[in-house]
Amino acid sequence: MGRIYYLYFERGIEMNSKIKVLVTGAGGFIGHHLVKYLKNKGYWVRGVDIKEPQYEKTSADEFVLLDLREFDNCIKACRGVQEVYQLAADMGGIGYISSSHALVLRNNALINLHMLEAARVNNIQNYLYTSSACVYPQYLQQDAKVKMLKEEDAYPADSEPGYGWEKLFSELASQYYNEDYRLKTHIVRFHNIFGPLGAYEGGREKSPAAICRKVALAKDGEKIEVWGDGKQTRSYCYIDDCVEGIYSLMRSDYFKPLNLGQDRLISVDELVDIACKSAGKKIVKEYDLSKPQGVRGRNSDNTRLREVLKWEPVVSLEEGIKRTYKWIESELRAKGRI
Ligand code: NAD
């Protein structure tokens, strides 16, 4: 039956309502947005996570609380679906991942090995693994004016301790399942995805959300704390582009790792300035050099992304930060904190 659905796709006729998909990590930031996106496309969606989405009710047809470190739970999660988007991971901002190497590596390796095997046992037709730019070698990211990172730069490997090494290992595991068992495993390497409905406090938030929160809580002219010296650089990709890219990759016949991010290099100082502009505030930056800042510079080379998907992210950083700032500010206001 599955093959028939795919023939409809090839003819451009959307029969998505007949396809059942699983989104793991559906209680998290990207997974929650992806569930909404897939529902809008007409899919039947099962969401799985160890927690419910924090800020908005899920739009999944079925939402199941399961710990995916357990193999039996991965089997249950994959039962009766044709496609799997594997987004479950123990992760957070640089503060969290740099202080929990053993825990993060163990939790994520268990989830990924068990999910791949459960997908194989359940004859899943299409599988997506969410990797990260943290797989790229640290020796290529020591300068703020970093060279854009191409997919093949991941080797010789020298990934981010803990989280990054596990991502690289699970990329390989995904590729082996493709080669040995013909499981169609797609591998995406995200570069700093941000947007509304993501963590903005509590330790797991990423820099764009943390900066928007600090700016929202500060009064005009006040100081905010910035981790590092503000000169470290990154590229940032808005969530709507991220889910669009994930979906196109799943529909492609491309099975090697692929970057998904923006290729505009921005310093943390510039990111703070953009958030201040959205807020209409002037803020004084106070640098804390004792805080972790990760690699010195990191940027995505999108050459392969353009070749494979005939597409690249379109939402500007200014627009993305404007929408994210607005959401975080409204959350803090609703909690009576501003
Ligand atoms: P997130 O933390 O918001 O979502 C991950 C979800 O996985 C969480 O809801 C968490 O509860 C769930 N989870 C953790 N352990 C679990 C378990 N044992 N069983 C079931 N669920 C479990 O993170 P996100 O930003 O939405 O990231 C999604 C994926 O993208 C992850 O694989 C992450 O490593 C990857 N990624 C994200 C970024 C980014 O910038 N957000 C960058 C690179 C890679």
From TrEMBL:
Gene Ontology MF annotations: GDP-mannose 3,5-epimerase activity; NAD binding
SUPFAM superfamilies listed in its UniProt record: NAD(P)-binding Rossmann-fold domains (SSF51735)
UniProt superkingdom: Bacteria
Stored Pfam families: Epimerase
Swiss-Prot/TrEMBL keywords: NAD
Residue ranges constituting the NAD-dependent epimerase/dehydratase domain according to the UniProt record: 21-252
Protein name: GDP-mannose 3,5-epimerase 1
